[in-house]
Structures
1.
Amino acid sequence: MVEPARGHHRADGGADGGVRDLLVVGAGIIGLSVAWRALSAGLTVEVLDPTPGDGATHAAAGMLAAVTEADYGEERLAAMNRDSAALWPAFAADLEAASGLDVGLRRTGTMTVAYDADDVAESRRLARTQHRWGMDIEELTAAAARERSPLVGPVAGAFWSPSDHQVDPRSVHRALLIAVREAGGAVVRRRVSSLLTDRAGGGPRVTGAVDERGRSAAPGPSCSPPGRAHLRCWPTSRSRLPSDP
Ligand SMILES: Cc1cc2nc3c(=O)[nH]c(=O)nc-3n(C[C@H](O)[C@H](O)[C@H](O)COP(=O)(O)OP(=O)(O)OC[C@H]3O[C@@H](n4cnc5c(N)ncnc54)[C@H](O)[C@@H]3O)c2cc1C
């Protein structure tokens, strides 16, 4: 856990002393994706992580299962997950082009098996809700499930989501490391030990970070890359560095 820094801190800029538009803490699949897209948008970026890729990214199964994982009461989340999953093919294609690596996107659909009659009844009930939300899910007989996937054992039934796919998170991570590097980003192997915060304008806002060596880093004073006037980086004119938390 990263705690807010105590005392007065001056932000020193990037590892090489240069000023960055964006500082990302954590080089997992999310941090690196943000870093890569920000670099593509014309920002300068530094990512801090002592062990890139050792977090949940390493453990994840890589299911892109917006339908299969949609549950009661989660209609809005499910819609967002479905929209996000639909962006994966283009994201994977961009990333493969940028890195030269295969990220293991397999558009194979996903099957959920039901082991007994209760499982079938419960899955059917959930599938009705998923249908109401406009999701693509189809009930299969046990024989149809085995035809689709011969290793399926003695089951009572199954449910098929043709639009739920999978990706290899470890390959995605390797590709992101290359893409970030190729785009000019820096992944610095240091742990962030505390955050710089600013209370100007209301509640505390994170404005930078201090790494394990005591070096503090914060984004530059403002940024608006050419042609991307809608992008604004911290700190804005409402916040100042340095500040005491
Ligand atoms: C067992 C398991 C299975 C999963 N299966 C799926 C799945 O099938 N489909 C799916 O979509 N999602 C799945 N997930 C969720 C998915 O793995 C996460 O949502 C995703 O990996 C989060 O990425 P992240 O980059 O935010 O975090 P992480 O991958 O955890 O990356 C965080 C990074 O931050 C770094 N870090 C931590 N502290 C500091 C610090 N103080 N300073 C600097 N760096 C620091 C770590 O070293 C790490 O590299 C699964 C998760 C688990 C655990």
Note: The two ends are 17 Å apart (CA to CA).
2.
Amino acid sequence: MFNFKTHSRTMLLCSATATILALGPAIANSAEPVPNTPQLHQLTYSKVYISMLGTELLPIDDAPTGQGNNGHIPLGSPEDEESPLTFYAAKKVFDAVEDVADGLGPVYNAQACRECHQSPMSGGSSQVTVVRAGRMNNGKFVDHAGGSLIQDRAIHYSLQEQVQDGNDITALRLSLSILGDGFVEAVSDDTLLAIAAAQPADMRGEAVMVEVLEGSGIKRVGRFGWKSQHASLLSFAVDAYLNEMGITSPLMPDENTSNGKSVAAYDTVADPEEEASAQYPFGRDVHAFTNFMRSLKAPARNDATTQTQAIIDGQALFTQIGCSNCHTPAMVTSPPGTLLNGGTFTVTEALGNKRIRPFSDFLLHDIGTGDGIYQTGSAEARNKMRTAALWGLHTRARFMHDGLSLTLGNAIQRHQGQALSARKAFHQLTSDQQAKVLAFLRSL
Ligand code: HEC
Ligand code: HEC
């Protein structure tokens, strides 16, 4: 895992730290011994550092949580004009309502990123779901004509998409929160792969390698979207601008169709609607979305100041019954200066060497809720979903990828497949213990 020849001493220290931190909770919890590291079962994190390195380590700070700028780009002032350069200016682009003259549509889902990513602040989540559809043909998933994402709106009555007969695999996908995702992007592939390797075999997550659009063909472990279909926030921004808002940009210059039929007759703005420039090669708005998303703090705990005994006990039970095998409590980002996404993204001081507490491994699992839509990974990934990140849980009212669980109890009840043993263990707890697990979940 650690290559002494290619890492400087500092890099080695940091990547060792990141990996151990990621492994710690999973190992403490794992039913089977982890190859080469059996002694780690017994050790606390600080003892691991000392035994691994024989020296004191650089302190690892928690990523800042709450609303506002994490310092990845300068804050600027509310008077700033729309641009990618300051937090205020980039947020204006994320919030901006686009119109037909800006290139909106011809088929689209909403007019602004913020329409679906708004609560408790821009970049958060919402109750908005989007529709996907397709069908099986000789054992292989085939996208609905015009792409598996069905756009719910159009700029002309003749363009409205509808799921066509014969597409019997249909799914709803809830909008995801983006808070803290700059840190998630800065987590190394090695850390995510080590988490997968340390999981009990019957719970092991699938890490999918996905193309970084701006990274000239390079692949990274996917971590964003319900199918971990992207590894980079810039790639996600390009995809969302086209597929949610109908706005083309240099990396995705072609408009969507309406159920497979061309919309060119209604498309009044030349493609790509977001143009490349020397300063912003992927389009100015795409850079603004990316900068804004990378600058978001991680979600705040519900009641960070008063950790009641019930919450502390609840977390211990959550670990004991195996929930934390997939809902990974903590991991550490790559050091500042690390080049990611094919060299297009340098981890800043604000994002580097930070401990995050996402309660997700960002890997795909079959817990019996898979929506049947194929996007990335193995053929079985069709029936897998990404472990929902539980940070910020108290700010959401609908749960699971389809938003159809309206209570936490129902979300737990739906865990089958790879999560069956954990779900059963939850139901074997006394009602007092179950209440503590729920108190812990509500504290996130
Ligand atoms: C119509 C609603 C809608 C709009 C508008 C929208 N999104 Fe999303 N967003 C979603 C949904 C739904 C998902 C989950 C998609 C999936 O995985 O199937 C998502 C997921 C994401 C994610 C992944 C977050 C994570 O942690 O996995 C990012 C990043 C994102 N959107 C960025 C954007 C940006 C940038 C814009 C504006 C250009 C935008 N979105 C516009 C609905 C929307
Ligand atoms: C094998 C991996 C795995 C285990 C073990 C597991 N989960 Fe999950 N969990 C997932 C996946 C995957 C999802 C997303 C499923 C979906 O959206 O269809 C999820 C979703 C959730 C959600 C919904 C969160 C949201 O924002 O929508 C909650 C709550 C949750 N899990 C709690 C638990 C608890 C409590 C346990 C232990 C009893 C547990 N999980 C064990 C993989 C796991």
Note: Residues 197 and 204 are 7 Å apart (CA to CA).
